[in-house]
């Protein structure tokens, strides 16, 4: 597109782009921490009913008190949600020592005893965390579903943020919404850390979710709209790796900060610094030009040219040159656009429906796996590191595939392989924890690769004038999937294999839907809806992909040097 020529004139891969992308990518590290924070602040510790309030045998050891007040469940462990109505002293032998588990079970079978709920609260074994929202507010037994509800509310905030910030940034610009998002994340995260009750905690986490959407959408747009086509794949992958490193960073921070309040504060305070840094960012000149802010667009481009050491080239730019070079795009962008424009034309409609399926299922299955680490029976800090580390090879593979075989086959393959892996895990016996964990890690890696692909793919498919609306829409679909995912886990209480079947089936169906998306490898970034509708004409020219041309030229030069 014409704007690409202007960007090359002021420097498309200079110092400005390096500093710009680096500073925008740093907050992505802690975006991962907020997304997966629930794994650590909502750890469910081993727990059982506290002894009766009028229990007077203080000389008994904790083990003996547990024996006479709490029955055993079917697995031979202290029951989590029931206790004896009255202490069962017969379970102690004459010397005061406690009976074996077999003797206790036989005693329970021979003597009918009355049980009651935990009327005096619970006792918790805090080995993994010194405190969690579960232990502080007793979110166990009848209230155990509130844990999943807390994550659903957070994802609801991400959903609302995608709707609000997507439209506002298209109207008011990327930079101002990025500033607001950073401040909202800092304030809401700080308030969540000091919440005196669970409802207030959920309210502030809802605010964090909204901020995360604003950060993600505007960070991506500011990155992709300041870089040329030829490095979009590499830059998108680097940004994705920041999220991967953020998962590893969260495991390290949580390992050393075992109190949920301090942990929440630790991943929220840096956003005050990110807010101050955000004042330096330049507004997208592409957005400024398409919104008839020509003077600001030229001023910003000249500033970038000076930063890149191209002062003379920058001074040649003026409003007339900008208007002439983007005449077609600016004339087509007149008027206001809304989410309805994503469905107004045939190709936009088909593209939006297919992308909606891809984003919804990817997020749904991803958070279904990533937000229930305790089920694997492995140390939660170790499994968090493994789940984060698998993204590294997964994204290397998907980046290679996107650059050489295309975006569409890469997207389809990642989703279908993830779904098949999760479905295989459904039939693996539950006692084979190592095999189940390996399959889950493989599936999670494929879903991470799918996320990496669909972020770049969607940004290339949607035109500039409604890119934020489009990204906001697909992000909304992803958050719907993320909201539903925790609730699906609750179905496992009734049908054990059902969550895995649902998590595996959704990616396979969306992988088939992705077949109907157009390929964008080597194509220019569209600016208008008309560009999207004319994309088929570009495909018919059979021009080789730009990445492939670059590779061929490099190989040819090497052969010449060898000769």
Write the layout of secondary structure elements.
Elements lengths: L1 H9 L4 H21 L2 H4 L5 E3 L12 H8 L12 E3 L16 H10 L4 E3 L4 E3 L8 H5 L7 H28 L1 H20 L4 H27 L7 H25 L3 H7 L3 H9 L6 H6 L3 H14 L3 H5 L3 H7 L1 H6 L13 H25 L9 H10 L1 H14 L2 H21 L5 H29 L5 H23 L8 H16 L15 H5 L1 H5 L6 H17 L1
Antiparallel strand pairs: 1-4, 2-3
Helix pairs in contact: 2-9, 2-10, 2-12, 7-8, 7-9, 7-23, 8-9, 8-11, 8-12, 9-23, 10-19, 10-20, 18-22, 18-23, 18-24, 20-21, 20-22, 21-22, 21-24
Which class do the helix and strand fractions yield?
Answer: mainly alpha
Report the helical percentage: 55-70%
What is the number of strand segments?
4
Which strand order spans the largest sheet, edge to edge or round the barrel?
1-4
What Rg, in angstroms, do the CA atoms define?
A: 28 Å
Could you tell me the strand content as a percent range?
A: under 5%
Largest sheet: 2 strands, antiparallel
Mean pLDDT: 79
Membrane topology: Multi-pass membrane protein
Transmembrane segments: 152-169, 176-198, 204-226, 238-257, 263-281, 351-369, 381-405, 412-428, 434-458, 470-491, 497-517
Keywords: Membrane, Transmembrane, Transmembrane helix
InterPro entries: MFS_dom, MFS_sugar_transport-like, MFS_trans_sf
Structural features, described:
The chain is an all-alpha fold and 563 residues long. The chain is 67% helix and 2% strand. The strands form two sheets. It has a two-stranded antiparallel ribbon with strand order 1-4. Helix 9 (198-224) runs antiparallel to helix 23, helix 18 runs antiparallel to helix 22 (433-461) and helix 18 runs parallel beside helix 23. The chain is elongated, with a radius of gyration of 28 Å. The protein starts with a helix and ends with a helix.
């Amino acid at each position: 597109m014409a704007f690409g020529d202007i960007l090359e004139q002021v420097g498309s891969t200079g110092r400005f782009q390096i500093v710009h992308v680096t500073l925008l990518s740093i907050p992505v590290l802690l975006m991962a921490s907020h997304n997966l924070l629930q794994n650590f602040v909502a750890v469910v510790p081993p727990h059982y009913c506290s002894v009766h309030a009028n229990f007077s045998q203080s000389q008994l050891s904790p083990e003996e008190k547990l024996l006479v007040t709490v029955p055993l469940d079917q697995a031979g462990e202290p029951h989590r949600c029931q206790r004896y109505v009255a202490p069962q002293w017969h379970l102690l032998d004459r010397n005061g020592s406690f009976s074996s588990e077999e003797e206790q079970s036989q005693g329970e079978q021979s003597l009918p005893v009355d049980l009651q709920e935990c009327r005096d609260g619970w006792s918790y074994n805090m080995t993994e965390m010194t405190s969690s929202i579960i232990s502080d507010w007793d979110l166990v037994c009848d209230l155990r579903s509130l844990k999943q509800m807390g994550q659903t509310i957070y994802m609801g905030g991400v959903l609302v943020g995608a709707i609000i910030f997507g439209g506002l940034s298209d109207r008011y610009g990327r930079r101002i919404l990025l500033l607001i998002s950073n401040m909202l994340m800092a304030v809401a995260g700080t308030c969540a850390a000091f919440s005196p009750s669970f409802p207030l905690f959920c309210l502030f986490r809802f605010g964090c979710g909204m901020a995360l959407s604003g950060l993600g959408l505007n960070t991506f747009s500011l990155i992709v709209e300041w870089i040329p086509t030829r490095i979009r794949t590499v830059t998108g992958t680097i940004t994705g790796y920041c999220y991967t490193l953020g998962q590893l960073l969260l495991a390290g921070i949580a390992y050393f900060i075992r109190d949920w309040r301090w942990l929440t504060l630790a991943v929220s305070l840096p956003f005050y610094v990110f807010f101050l840094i955000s004042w330096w960012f330049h507004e997208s000149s592409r957005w400024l030009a398409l919104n008839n802010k020509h003077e600001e667009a030229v001023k910003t481009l000249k500033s970038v040219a000076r930063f890149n050491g191209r002062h003379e080239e920058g001074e040649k730019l003026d409003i007339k040159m900008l208007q002439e070079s983007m005449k077609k795009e600016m004339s087509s962008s007149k008027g206001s656009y809304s989410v309805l424009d994503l469905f107004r034309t045939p190709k936009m409609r088909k593209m939006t429906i297919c992308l909606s399926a891809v984003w919804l299922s990817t997020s749904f299955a991803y958070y279904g796996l990533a937000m229930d680490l305790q089920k694997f029976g492995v140390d939660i800090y170790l499994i968090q590191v493994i789940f984060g580390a698998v993204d590294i090879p997964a994204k290397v593979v998907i980046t290679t595939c996107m650059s050489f075989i295309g975006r569409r086959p890469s997207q389809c393959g990642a989703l279908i392989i993830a779904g098949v892996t999760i479905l295989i895990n459904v039939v693996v016996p539950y006692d084979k924890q190592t095999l189940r964990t390996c399959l889950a890690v493989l599936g999670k890696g494929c879903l991470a690769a799918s996320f990496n692909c669909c972020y770049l793919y969607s940004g290339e498919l949607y035109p500039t004038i409604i890119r934020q609306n489009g990204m906001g829409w697909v992000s909304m679909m992803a958050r719907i999937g993320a909201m539903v995912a925790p609730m699906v886990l609750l179905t496992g209480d009734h049908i054990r294999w059902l969550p895995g079947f649902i998590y595996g089936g959704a990616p396979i169906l969306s992988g088939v839907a992705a077949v109907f998306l157009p390929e964008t490898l080597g194509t220019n970034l569209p600016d208008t809806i008309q560009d999207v509708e004319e994309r088929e004409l570009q495909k018919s020219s059979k021009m080789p992909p730009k990445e492939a041309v670059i590779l061929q030229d490099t190989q040819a030069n090497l052969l010449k040097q060898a000769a």
